[in-house]
Amino acid sequence: MAGSVNRVILVGNLGKDPDVRTSQSGAKIVSFSLATSDTWNDRASGERRERTEWHRVVIFNERLADVAERFLRKGRKVYLEGSLQTRKWTGQDGKENYTTEIVLAAYRGELVLLDSRDSGDAPHQQQGRSQSNQQSGSWDSQKSNPQLDDDIPF
């Protein structure tokens, strides 16, 4: 193996509306929590079980941050690709803390809205990608969403 890969792909629902901040340099930073869930039937009891994992997502990509700010709301289902990063910070009590996040960086990352909840916008307006991924043949929600077939002009 010649190298390593740090790539995270998630499909989940937003836990709350995104938090939009501006850095000192004027760049937009968007953060939100994303829930992913596994469900299964318990073999012993036969009961339906569910486990939810919460992921912290931070967007540093200006174009994706604009899409997130305009269209993401609590409960929306999204597909995203980013990288895993852990950062160290010191709390008010002086204790060192660590936070692991999925980061959609300035020139990397992808964000696709998978539902049309509370939105009457055209499908092409509901997805955002970094420019580098638009030309790479990356995953496209229009190909996998049968609702969108009616909007294709051919």
Give the structure's gist in a few sentences:
InterPro entries: NA-bd_OB-fold, Primosome_PriB/ssb, ssDNA-bd. With 154 residues, this protein is mainly beta.
Describe this structure in words.
The protein is mainly beta and 154 residues long. It is 12% helix and 44% strand. A 5-stranded mixed beta barrel has the order 1-3-4-6-5. A hairpin with a 5-residue loop joins strand 2 and strand 3. Residues 125-138 have a biased composition (Low complexity).
Poorly predicted regions are 119-154
- In total, the number of strands is 8
> Radius of gyration in whole Å, from Cα?
18 Å
SSE order, as H and E?
A: EEEEHEEEEHH
The end-to-end span amounts to 44 Å
Structural class: mainly beta
Could you say which overall geometry the principal axes of the C-alpha atoms support?
Answer: globular
Number of helices: 3
Biggest beta sheet summary: 5 strands, mixed, barrel
Present the secondary structure layout.
Blueprint: E1 8-14, E2 19-22, E3 28-41, E4 48-59, H1 62-71, E5 77-90, E6 96-104, E7 110-113, E8 127-129, H2 131-134, H3 141-144
Parallel strand pairs: 4-6
Antiparallel strand pairs: 1-3, 1-5, 2-3, 3-4, 5-6, 5-7, 7-8
